[in-house]
Amino acid sequence: MKFNWKISLPIVFFLVLVALLAFGLKNDPRVVPSVLIDKPVPEFTLANLHTGEQVATEAMQGEVWVLNIWASWCAGCLEEHPYLNELSKTDLGVPWSLVGFNYKDTDLEAKAWLNKHEDPYHQIITDPSGRTGIDFGVYGVPETFVIDKKNRIRHKHIGPLTPEDIENTIIPLIKHLAAES
Amino acid sequence: MLLASKSIYLFMRKVLATMLFLSVFIIPVSHSAIEEVHFDNPIDAVRYKDMIAELRCLVCQNQNLEDSSAPLALDLKKLVEELIKAGKGDQEVYLHLTERYGDFVLYKPPLKGTTYLLWFGPLLFLLIGALIFFGQIRKRNKPTENN
């Protein structure tokens, strides 16, 4: 049969369109890729929830750390919390720390929430105004950043972490970054 | 019959009157919810309004900051206000936000390598359409020329 481009062209065009739309459907529009990947951690000086001491960006340098943005008012945070509790108890064989970033919350409510649901964090910094959160490009809690020894953001996860996310992405990444010089 | 329809009419009138009366209380409430931002310089007030209309609320993605009262949108509006009051230019304010949230925060995507197709795609399709259109016309005219 002779190739009839007059009939084939619209069909090809249609199929390309369907493929593009199918690809579009697979993307979650709520997940906005972070522009901060491979960039240094934004400068901050925030109070430690438990001690009240000021913690600066530089103080975090030297070790791989996972920054988990959470709040007592956030439903998604409660969803991922058991997995964070588990992660902080797991021995990964490399030095790392889980840092809590208490976003737009009150110290009182944050502490009550942790008492109720367990505190997995090695350290918690508080951002009651949410201004440092903006510097981190936070737009929906929970969000989780993986940061390397040189204080560069290497990965961002938006939304609640699932056990699969932790097992397949977070843990391998911590180990990989810990091996970097 | 007539009596029934009259009583319905009277009832509806009462309902409408009540609604009208209650609306008096609703309107001032919705007005007081809009917080006016004050600028000493009227130009800054216009710039502020223009910019929050051009910036996307990332929580409710199909709204701009101006229309949104999501907590993050309020925070971002406050930030824009502060940046303007600190004497920052329009481009500096936009840059401050795109450095944190990416181009997605802008309603109008910037013209660059990855967005050429987005900007010039419609023109390209118009061109293809025109080519097909004039090609067809020429084809139709040919046989008559031959005759």
Low-confidence stretches of chain B: none
The unreliable regions of chain A are none
Structural class of chain B: mainly alpha
Strand percentage of chain A: 15-25%
% residues in beta strands of chain B: under 5%
Instruction: Spell out the helices and strands of chain A N to C.
Output: HEEEHEHEHEEH
**Widest beta sheet: strand line-up of chain A:** 2-1-5-4-3-6-7
Distance between the termini of chain A: 63 Å
Rg of chain B (CA only): 28 Å
Number of strands of chain A: 7
The number of helical runs of chain B is 5
The helix-strand sequence of chain B is HHHHH
Question: How would you explain this protein's 3D organization?
Answer:
The complex is a heterodimer of chains A (about 180) and B (about 150). With about 180 residues, chain A is an alpha/beta fold. In chain A, about 40% of the residues lie in helices and about 20% in strands. Chain A has helices spanning about 5-25, 75-90, 105-115, 130-135, 165-180; strands at about 45-50, 55, 65-70, 95-105, 125, 145, 155-160. A 7-stranded mixed beta sheet of chain A has the order 2-1-5-4-3-6-7. The longest helix of chain A has 22 residues, at about 5-25. In chain B, about 70% of the residues lie in helices and about 0% in strands. The model of chain B has no long low-confidence stretch (mean pLDDT about 85). Chain B is flat. Chain B has about 150 residues and is mainly alpha-helical. At the A-B interface, helix 4 of A face helix 3 and helix 4 of B.
Give me the secondary-structure topology.
The complex is a heterodimer of chains A (181) and B (147).
Chain A: H1 5-26, E1 45-48, E2 54-56, E3 64-70, H2 75-89, E4 96-103, H3 107-117, E5 123-127, H4 131-135, E6 143-147, E7 153-158, H5 163-179
Parallel strand pairs in A: 3-4, 4-5
Antiparallel strand pairs in A: 1-2, 1-5, 3-6, 6-7
Chain B: H1 2-32, H2 42-54, H3 71-85, H4 90-101, H5 116-146
Helix pairs in contact in B: 2-3
